[in-house]
Amino acid sequence: MVSTRENFTNGAKACRYFQQLMLVVVVVCLGFVSSTQINPGFQFRLSRSGLNYGSTVALDILSKGVQQLKVPDIHGSTHIRVGKVSYDVTSMHVTGFTKPSTNVVINAGSGLTWQLNNAGLSMDGRWHYKFRKGFIRIQDSGSFDGHVSGASLTVSVSLGQDASGHPTISSTGCQCNIDSVKIRLHGGASWLYNLFIKQIERPVRNSLREQICTLARKAIDVNARARLATLPTEIVVGNDWVFDYRLVSPPAFQAEFLDSFHKGEFFAKGDPTEAPYQAAVFPPATSNQMVTIWVSDYILNTVGYVLYKRGILKHNLTKNELPVDEKGVLNTTCTSLMCFGFLVPQAATVYPNASVELEMMASSYPTASISTGGFRGNFAGLINFYARLANGSLAPMFKTKVSVTVSLTASLNNTVLKATITDLSSTIEVTDSKIGKIPDAVLNAAFNFISKIFIIPKLNAIGEKGISIPSIKDVRFTNTKLAMDNHCVHITTDVQYSPSETLRFEARNRPM
């Protein structure tokens, strides 16, 4: 009897591990909850099929672990009316495990229910006891077999948030049923003990049912809740960036999916100043795939805000940064048509045999918008032109205001994100000139010409190579699709998990 109880205590620990693993599937994307309701920068949806797949994968891991479970020996003693009994249960092994069926039900508006049905477990081992009363000494030993069949477990949880904004989890119900517990002793006087052992199988079954639900509730209400209370709500990116993914509203539960809603904002490290933007409301999306993710153009705009605020959008361009065969492009005295002096002859007249340097800076936050037609980015800045003279000094030539608009489309080829620029245009206005009048039309025509024959082809060559979607160990994304929508990109995908390592469960030896 004692060995079977210990057996199921360890089995319940495995159930607790599985419960926590299931919770990771649900709350991996959860974060800090803002007291002010705002639109999310990204939204994560997990469908019922995704939850059930996660449940199945977790159960497969659990099943392998249970079959390899190392059960500790049990040593203890107890006093009965007629004396003291010392006992040892050793060499216990799991000889069989019936993997249960599993199902996750989304309770609309409240939470989740996880169901396991028809689990079974078999063990064997050795037993030994000593009885002592005064000068009387009795001992016996032998082996045993234990079998539990028809075990089922149903656990319901709700997800919420506490006053500090962290996600919370609470168990809302637990039911455990065990159809049968059978114990058989072998060796010694087992023929006698087995006459009475059926009388205790029912109490053992009832005790195990209570223990399993107690452990399940503890796993949720104590262990999982404590972990969520310390769940990180931001990621440090590189050395200078922080990505804030806290919740901006509680998770929502529908019959076929659950959604979580996240801030999705980049900050400069050490400066959590809010960007002066508001994310647009996400449009609805319908998909039968496991995961759907909405990514707002708000996230891109927070990046632009930080870049501008920190003064990063500044650069001085000189001929030293150009390839060797293109350094002549910035000369005032020209030997080819691709030359600044040919474009602005006033520069060649006033400052012959000089090289041009550009002081470039943003004049406002760059902005981005996404629509069903693609991506559109806008940049406004100032470009000041100088001549680097033979004596090393800089001579100012003219200043301009520049606005640039770029349009592109994105596509997904398997797991590689590609981009194609469809338009790159600019408006250039000369605001001050030290070398005479320079027509705006000349500069605009020159930029458009250069962008078509040089800038766009080079950028599209880079976009065609694309970038790979970040991978997760042992996880493969399949049937991944990307679509542009109003103010967002939404990605749908299925997931396949293939563990590269085998999970092992080990219990510690302890006295009873």
Characterization of the model:
- By secondary structure, the protein is α+β, with helices and mostly antiparallel strands.
- The protein contains seven helices and 23 strands.
- Strands 2, 3, 4, 5, 6, 7 and 23 form a seven-stranded mixed beta sheet that branches.
- Helix 1 runs antiparallel to helix 2 and helix 1 packs parallel to helix 3.
- The radius of gyration is 35 Å and the shape is elongated.
- The N terminus and C terminus are likely disordered.
Give the structure's gist in a few sentences:
By secondary structure, the chain is α+β, with helices and mostly antiparallel strands. The chain has helices at residues 2-27, 48-67, 190-229, 297-309, 340-343, 345-350, 440-465, and strands spanning 42-47, 74-80, 83-98, 101-107, 111-133, 136-161, 167-186, 234-237, 241-244, 247-253, 257-262, 265-268, 291-296, 314-317, 355-362, 367-371, 374-388, 394-413, 416-433, 467-468, 475-485, 488-497, 510-511. It is elongated and about 120 Å long.
Report the helical percentage: 25-40%
Major sheet: 7 strands, mixed
Class by SSE composition: alpha+beta
Secondary structure tally: strands:
23
Low-confidence stretches: 1-36, 503-512
